[in-house]
Structure formats: structure tokens, C-alpha cells
Amino acid sequence: MPKVTVDGQEIEVPDGATVLQACELAGKEIPRFCYHERLSIAGNCRMCLVEVKPGPPKPQASCALPATEGQEIRTDSQMVKTAREGVMEFLLINHPLDCPICDQGGECDLQDQSMMYGRGATRYTANKRAVSEKYMGPLIKTIMTRCIHCTRCVRFSEEIAGVDEIGALGRGEDMQITTYLEQAAEHELSANVIDLCPVGALTSRPYAFEARPWELKKTLSIDVSDAIGANIRLDSRGREVMRALPRNNDDVNEEWISDKARYQVDGLQRRRLDSVWIRKDGTLQKAGWDEAFAAIAAAQPGKSIAAIAGDLVDCETMFAAKALLSAMGSDLLEGRQTGMAYDVSNLAAVNFNSTLAGIETADAILILGSHIRWEAPLVNVRLRKAAKRGAKIFIAGPRWETTFPAEFLGEDLGFLNDVPQALSEAMTGAERPAIIMGGAGLAAGALAPALKLVEQFGLIKDGWNGFNVLHMAASRMGGLMLGYAQAGGIADVADAKPKVLLALGADEVDFTNFGDSLKVYIGHHGDKGAHAADIILPAASYAEKDGTYVNTEGRVQFAEKAVFAPGDAREDWTILRALADTLGVELGFDSFAQLQSAMIAQVPALGEEGLADLGALPKPDAKAKAQGSISAYPIKDFYLTNPIARASAVMQRCTAELLHGEEILEAAE
Amino acid sequence: MADRSPQPDSPELRARWGSFEFSSEYKAKADKAIARYPEGRQKSAVMPLLDLAQRQVGEETDTQGWLPLPVIEYVATYLEMPAIRVLEVASFYFMYNLKPVGKYHVQVCGTTPCMLRGSDALFETCAARGMFKGHVSQDGLWTLTEVECMGNCATAPMVQINDDNFEDLTPERLDAVLDALAAGESPKAGTQEPGRHTSEPSGGPSTLKQMVDANHDYRSEW
Fold it and tell me: Which residue, among A129, A144, A180, would best test binding to B if mutated, counting the most B CBs under 10 Å from its CB?
């Protein structure tokens, strides 16, 4: 723990800290462009210069200088001020003065820092350098003349994403950042380089020229495109969500989000259900709320009513539907739309127990049927970190392109009964072994046999639980906590032949099994569920309502309402509350606050943000045998996994260009 | 400065170079270069391998050699590294030609010492033979590039042609060198000054004269 003096203030800093970090600990702001906490140190922008004694009598780059005992650091001397002005002047020599037409304007590091630390006027009169634009795919717009060569994007794609595709060609003044042969950046986290870029060189293509940061309303929200529950900020103007940006949360998403989480928001404007529809003579026709409610009441469901929750719904919606059903005397609740029926009698067995931050400390990982890159891109980032620290990773299931060294064990699950020696040795010899069970593994019935391995591999250790299930739906853990599961899965619901089926944004259900039921779709997009429905009640998407979400590690998080739902659409719980009146039952709440208290009274864990305590893992079933194989993963197209993404033009373009390789010809400008 | 962008990707380029592989002779040299580094650090050999690849391309095309994109990709595959990382190296160092060159790559130094000693006249000599900066001459024999200091200031002006330096040049001496090369001969590399061996001071030593024949202790004179 070296002691250093920063501007006369003596502080103790952790071993291995840099001078820049020491200054930050002392509360000093050090301007920087290339340095980033989550990337390796490059030391090439020179903006973080400070004066350090003992040392050469010249300013030194604080980001790359280790803090050592007895250093005297000055960040406020004349030398530092002059040095910063000099560096800023050099950076601005070739930077165009096009802030008025630059999308980064208002949230630009270069703009802010030149105001804070720059000279105020230029002395440069010669011609500026110009760089041709580089194509980087449908999400990233490039104006490379603005690039200041910080190489954050290069380091991100190499270190975090693990897909080496961005590089710096040439040198000196001629250095240019580009992808190889200007191919599109093709991975699930590519757009994070837009946030990393300290200037306007890499900006968002779909958001180009749409809005200025100061005219946007910022709302704290939770991403619903996968089960990770990435913390996002929704920027909205009027009734439109303009963009989604990641928020820092080291426990969940660090500061990244997937391209789908970021760019599906334009789908919130398209294919929206904004009025009530009733199927008459085989075709859907516009109707009013009263008419729709009357039609549902006319079906006289009584006890024969069921609810199926979709992948994107919040806990409050599911609780409201549950309250309605229990008031009617039914408990036909299910959330696993595709028919999975794994045992949920113990929720710890279907939870990501290592936690997302914890999995990167694992040193031997067995992945059972999960295409991690598509099912949870942010977990893939963690796995890459674990692999870099030396973790051995084994994958059972069809091959996919990993971003870390991994051994594929084949598709057959038989190995779970008789574990091969190499795998067994790696797992038992590890200090923090982990199993990650994916959707394909659950579908293949591998949960019970895998639980048998908990003891064999020693997955439970002091302060470590290495048994993980990786879900894909934002609503899954919340739904399971609220009892949205039947022993036999959705087949049990179908067998009960309910008179009325409430589909809460459920778009992946095979509705042909519910031929005789009155299908009421309460959701926000005209997708598969709405096509099959008899009555459509327009509801709110995740951006249009407050709601609680539980991610795959059992973390309870709260999202706020950013905008109002379009047209006649209402927040889901109000629809269910009104429906209860028509059906003549009491739900016990009249406001959102009352609903939440009732929900928390029933499931106390939902009332507290943070990890829910789901108890210990169950005793394994000694008779469980693994059978069959994993021949495919559930996600066929990363960009089109939910109704919002399917409605999004940006996601459609991504799938066409990045997954199916179609040439998208740019319209002549 | 020379254009450092790679030769554009095209079906013709792929057809010509797509099947590039090291010949057995070059493969042996490449593997030797890789063996210099520890296991798993084979990427460190990217620079010698690019040079070898460029030389093999040179042999195949009877030029100094250059690096078409498929060849760069071949080197990347050979070293199990991403192509962009290899292209970064190839575009950084001027010794790698990213565009086709002539049989002789005439690199005339135009930095101050050489300029003061008459490099402008050397450019004129080259121009008289139909060479233009950055272009291959009509007969495919020459590529002219102006380069920055090559570290031969004591024997300025100088020209580097493929692997050899030619120093102490005048337009006539350069003409003689180029004539010899064009005739398929190998002119003497190094200084062209009669009586001079390497970069020793012309006209004999001007300092430390007493050390020319035997060791001499100057310390008592300090």
C-alpha cells in the first residue's frame, strides 16, 4: 500500500494502482481519452499528463505510471496546465470543427475537455487531415476524420468482445481505424464501441441526426431482451423512445449492453397494438373496451381460466393476472411458453447461483446446451474473462463460434451418466467449478442428471455455488417466483381446456393446442400471439410501465416508465383490474402501489432490489439418467427473439446483413 | 508519402493469389523464424514471415515482391492470428509493399543531409529514366519511392535498391548503377566513392588520428 501525495494531500493507494487512479482516489479529475477502466492501458492520447516527483523534470502520462511510495504528484501546477493545453491543441489540429453537425455534440469528451483544459483559440492555420469513411455495419456510423486515435474501439473488440476485427492501419498522421476490408463488425456487443468512442468518430447509425442529448428525458430502466436484466437508460422525447444506453452496474452488465438491447427500441414504434380488436366471423375487427370485456364475460369462464405469461412481462402484470385467476378459483399459470416442463419445486435449482459477477472467477466451467453468445452476450464477456484467467471451459451441444478456448464434448448427453476422466479431473481439481445449464439443456431434460454432478464435482464450496441455469426470458425468474409453472408445463394448461386463455404478451405459444379456448391477448405488438387471438387488448411495453424484473441470477430490479403507451393501449395491470370488475371478482388492489404491496406480501423477495435468497440446492434424484442429445439451440436468430425486436427495422436489417449476408445497398445520398 | 492502403480486394486478386502457399524452401525458413519464440507466441514471428512471403511473391513475379491481401491472410492463418492484426503490421512498416512494385524498388532518400548533398539531382536522373514517385515504370523494371532518412548521412546522398544501399552518389554514378542493374548485373553495393571502403571519413581521419595504427591513451591530454 504505497503512500503518495497528490496536490499536498497524502493518501494511501492500493498496490498496483496507477498515478491516475491515485489522483482519482484523492478526488482530482484527470482528463483522459484513451484510458478506460475496463480496457488495457494504451497511453497514447497523452491527455492525462501530471507532474510527478521523483522523476524526469517533465510531465508524465499518469495512466501508465505506477504509483510508488513517496511520490509527489501535482495536478494543478503550471506545467500540467501548459501540458494539457499543448496536448489538446495537438489533438484539435486534425479534428474538424463540425460540432454543430456532429451527433456526439453535447456528450463529447473532446468537446467537454477542450472547454475545461484547452487554450480557447487555435493557432493552426494549415490544412487539416481528412480521412475517408469506413463501413462498419448497420449499427455503427463512422466519420473517421473526427478520430483521435485513442484505440479504445480496437481494444474493446480484442479484449472484451474477443472478436478481432477493428484495427489501426498505417501510422502517424496516416493512421486509420477500420475493420478488416471494411466488413461489418459482426458480434453481439459491437455497438458498445459507440459509447466508448470519446469523440464523434463512431456514432449510432440508426440514431443519426435524430436528437440532441439535452432534449431527451432520461429514464432508468431494465433491458428485457434477455434474462440478464442489463441496466439501461431509456432516452425519450415526447412519446418516443429515441435510444437505449447502458448504465454502470458491475454486478450485472458492467457497462455494456447487447446490440439487441440497444437497438430494438425502434420496434416500440412499429406494429403496435393501439386499439381493441375482436375476432368476428373469422376476422379481427376494431372494437371498444366494453365490448371486449363483455365478450370475455359472456364466455362465462368461472374456474376455467388460464394465463400464459410472455417473455417480456414484468412481475406486476403477472401478479395481477395471478390475482385475477385465484379470485376466479383457478391456478392455471404458465410462463414457459415453448412447452418446457423442468422441475421448479426448488427455485435454487433453476437459478444462476454463481451470480454474473461471480462466474468470471470460476476456473472450470461446463456449459450444458447453451449458445452463450446468443442467449446471453454479457455472460459471454464474463466467460471470456474467466478463460483469460485460466479457466477451462467445456461445452456440450452443437458447435458455435466461441470467443475463448473451449472444448466441445459433442451433442450426446450420455456423458453425464459416465463422466469422462478429463472432464472429471478438471472439475474436481478446480477451486471454483461451475456448470451452466442453458435452454437447450433444460429442454433435453438434463437438469436432474446435472444436479447429480453437484456433489461429484464439488460445485458447492465455502462461499461458492457453481450450479447455474441460464434463462433467456426477462420474465422467467419472476414468473417462477410467482408460481407461473405447471408440473407438466404448458401441456397441463392445454389439457385443462380452459374456456378463457389470457395470453400476457405470449408470442411463442403453439395456440393450436387451445382451439376451443377464448384466446385473449394482452400485449403490445401485433405478433404471433395477436394473430392467434380472439380478443386483443392493447397493453404497454417495458418502456411504458413501471415494473419489477428478476434476472436469471435472481436479482430483483425495478424499471421505470419512460413514455406513454400509444393510442388506446393501457398498462397491463389496469386492464386486468378492469376485467376483474366485468367478471365480478375482487382483486384487492385499486392502484399500482396497492398491487405492489399485495405482490410483496405474497412474495417478499420481490420487494427488495438485489439478489433474492432462493435457498439451498435440492437433493439430487439418484435415479435420474441423462438421455438423448442436444441437437440445436432454441435461438435461431439472435436479432429476432422477441416481438419488439421482430418489429424493429434495425434488427431486421441486422439479421439480413449480419446473419444472412445479404448485400444491403445504401440508398444514393 | 507513399500510399499505404492495400491493393483493393477483387476477384482477379483472389484468383491470382488465393492459393498462395510457402514453397518448401520458404516454409523451412518460416518455421525456423517461428521456432525462435516460445510455444504459443508464434505471433511474434509475423514480421519475418511477412518478409518471407513478400520475397516469395517477388520470386514468382520477378519483382521485389509485395503483399496481396490473400497472402496477408495466408500469413495470418499460418500464425493463427486475426488478419487485421497482420494487416496492421504490414501497413505500419514501409519495408512491406502493399501495392505491386517493379523488379527494382528504387528508394531515394530525400531527407535534409541527402538533399544538401544533391538528392534532387538523383530524382531528376530517375525521372529521366521514366520513373515517377509511387509508380512502376513502363518496362516494369523500376518503382521509385522517396523515403525519409535511412541512416547513411555520412555517405549522402544514398539510394536503397531492394536489399542494397548505394551511397556517395552523383547522377553519373546512379546512372551507372541503374544501367548495371538493368543489364542484369550486380553492381557493387555500398559507397560508390573510389578509394572509400565504408563510411569512414573521406580524406582520412580528422580526429583520434593517433589511434589509426595503434591504441593510444588520450587521458593525460584531457
Answer: A180
Q: What is the pLDDT of residue A662?
A: 61
In angstroms, rounded to a whole number, what is the distance separating the alpha carbons of residues A96 and A127? 11
For A111-168, how does the pLDDT look when each residue is reduced to its tens digit (9 = 90+)?
A: 999 999 999 888 999 999 999 889 999 999 999 999 999 999 999 999 999 999 999 9
Alpha helices in B62-170 (DSSP H): 69-78, 83-92, 112-116, 119-128
Residue A139 in contact with residue A191, Cβ under 8 Å? Answer: yes
Instruction: Determine the longest span between alpha carbons in chain B, in angstroms.
Output: 74
Distance in Å from the first CA to the final CA of chain B: 47
Instruction: Report, in angstroms and rounded to the nearest whole number, the Rg of chain B calculated over CA atoms.
Output: 21
From chain B, pick out residues whose CB is under 8 angstroms from the CB of A164. Answer: 81-82, 84-85
Number of A to B CB contacts under 8 A, please give it.
32
A143 HSE (CA, 13 A, CB side):
19
CA distance B78 to B50: 11
- A-chain residues near B81 (CB < 8 A): 164
Mind listing the pLDDT tens digit of every residue in chain B (222 residues)? 456 889 999 999 999 999 999 999 999 999 999 999 999 899 999 999 999 999 999 999 999 999 999 999 999 999 999 999 999 999 999 999 999 999 999 999 999 999 999 999 999 999 999 999 989 999 999 999 999 999 999 999 999 999 999 999 999 999 999 999 999 999 999 999 998 888 888 778 888 888 888 899 988 887
Phi, psi of B54 (to 5 degrees): -65, -40
Are A541 and A524 within 8 A, CB to CB?
yes
Whether the CB of A179 is below 8 Å from some CB of chain B: the reply is: yes
Quick check: ipTM above 0.85?
yes
What value does the CA radius of gyration of chain A take, rounded to a whole number of Å? 27
Best residue in A174, A176, A182 for a mutation probing chain B (most B CBs within 10 Å): A174
C-alpha cell at position A92: 484539435
Q: Which of A25, A46, A40, A208 is nearest to A113 (CA)?
A: A46
- A294 vs B: CB within 8 A: no
Are the beta carbons of A87 and A73 closer than 8 angstroms? no
Q: What is the DSSP letter of A345?
A: S
Give the C-alpha separation, A24 to A29, whole Å. 6
Cα angle at A299 between A296 and A301, to 5 degrees?
95
Tens digits of per-residue pLDDT, A481-531? 999 999 999 999 999 999 999 999 999 999 999 999 999 999 999 999 999
Answer whether B87 sits within 8 Å of A166, measured CB to CB.
no
Instruction: Give B183: exposed, middle or buried? Use CB within 10 Å, 0-12, 13-18, 19+.
Output: exposed
State the pLDDT at residue B1. Answer: 45
Question: Helix/strand/coil (H, E, C) string of A372-406?
Answer: HHHHCHHHHHHHHHHHHCCCEEEEECCCCCCCCCC
Return the DSSP state at A88: H
Cβ separation of B9 and A181 shorter than 8 Å?
Answer: yes
Residue of chain B nearest A175, judged by CA positions: B92
A388 vs B: CB within 8 A: no
Whether residue A663 has pLDDT greater than 60: no
pLDDT in the model for residue B4:
81
Per-residue cell: A134: 469506413
